């Protein structure tokens, strides 16, 4: 018994060690700089990103300066993407595979080309790359928004088990006219999902207009069969013509079978948009979600339950022994009668 206890203690110590092991970061984040060269078409010369006023069919060649501020050679990957809102509500330019709205007049990714997809810089070296912008033939209202995503390419040689790769995002906005566009937001749908092995709800919210919408107060209340589960308010900014799959974690709460409603209100100045999309979860679906959610505390077996289980097991074994002995006695009685 003592050996078994010692073995269990050793296993527990190993589990705790790996649960709390902290990865070692390999490098400093400040490895390069990216600075724009302000063109004549820039609407505001003080901006640290591109905001261009261009006419239909007009082309513009932009210059971007990349500088290696480290003492090691590094390679930078350069790409251009449409501006979208990620699942946390932040505007990003690193990936536009999700979040695009079909409401945009043109896709800015079709209008912008980067001269170099990859740039290698020696220690403290500076290089220039160019960005070609070709405006569409037709005039459009509002803005088309995208951005350059510049990221350090990983090296095969680094210390520790985590390699920090510094990245920069630089917005690039084009427009035909300096005018305001009346914003419009749609609350499309909601559904249950699981992300990073945790239960969550996703609400699809769409900015269907070609304008940034800033200082938006997003309030939501998730209820199941009229019982409120989560209620919260956030501040976000919408990218133009973006469809955001907003992620609401349940923070350790289990899904239960029933119909869920996500009452959503967005407020920006005098504008207010409301919606209440619903979705339904069946009992077997809820059970599957909850079993794989690592944040839900699994109820451990109590000592009473364990004791009852052991007692039932011993009783079962005792009954089997009695049955075997009874059969043996019956055979002996039959043999003596003969």
From TrEMBL:
Regions crossing the membrane: 301-324
InterPro entries: WxLIP_HBD, WxLIP_PGBD
WxL Interacting Protein host binding domain residues: 160-291
Keywords: Membrane, Transmembrane, Transmembrane helix
Pfam families: WxLIP_HBD, WxLIP_PGBD
Record-annotated WxL Interacting Protein peptidoglycan binding domain positions: 32-151
Superkingdom of origin organism: Bacteria
Name of this protein: DUF3324 domain-containing protein
Organism: Candidatus Enterococcus lowellii
């Amino acid at each position: 018994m003592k050996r078994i206890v010692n073995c269990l203690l050793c296993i527990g110590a190993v589990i705790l060690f790996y649960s709390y092991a902290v990865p070692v970061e390999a490098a400093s984040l400040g490895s390069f700089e990216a600075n724009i060269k302000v063109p004549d078409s820039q609407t505001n010369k003080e901006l640290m990103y591109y905001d261009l006023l261009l006419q239909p069919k007009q082309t513009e060649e932009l210059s971007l300066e990349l500088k290696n501020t480290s003492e090691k050679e590094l390679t930078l990957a350069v790409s251009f993407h449409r501006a979208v809102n990620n699942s946390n509500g932040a505007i990003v330019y690193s990936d536009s595979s999700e979040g695009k709205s079909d409401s945009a007049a043109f896709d800015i990714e079709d209008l912008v080309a980067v001269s170099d997809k990859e740039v290698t810089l020696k220690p403290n070296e500076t290089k220039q790359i160019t960005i070609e912008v070709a405006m569409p033939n037709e005039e459009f209202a509002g803005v088309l928004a995208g951005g350059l995503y510049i990221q350090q390419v990983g090296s095969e040689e680094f210390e520790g088990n985590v390699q920090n790769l510094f990245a920069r995002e630089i917005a690039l906005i084009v427009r035909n006219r300096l005018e305001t566009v009346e914003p419009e937001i749609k609350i499309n749908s909601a559904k249950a999902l699981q992300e990073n092995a945790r239960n969550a709800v996703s609400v699809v919210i769409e900015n269907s207009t070609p304008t940034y919408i800033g200082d938006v107060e997003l309030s939501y209340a998730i209820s199941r069969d009229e019982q409120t589960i989560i209620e919260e308010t956030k501040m976000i900014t919408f990218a133009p013509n973006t469809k955001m799959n907003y992620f609401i974690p349940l923070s350790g709460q289990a899904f239960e079978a029933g119909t869920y409603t996500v009452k959503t209100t967005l407020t920006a100045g005098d504008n207010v948009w409301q919606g209440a999309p619903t979705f339904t979860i069946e009992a077997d679906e809820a059970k599957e979600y909850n079993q794989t959610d690592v944040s839900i505390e699994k109820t451990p077996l109590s000592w009473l339950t364990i004791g009852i289980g052991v007692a039932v097991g011993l009783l079962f074994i005792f009954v089997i022994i009695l049955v075997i002995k009874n059969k043996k006695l019956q055979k002996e009685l039959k043999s003596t009668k003969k």
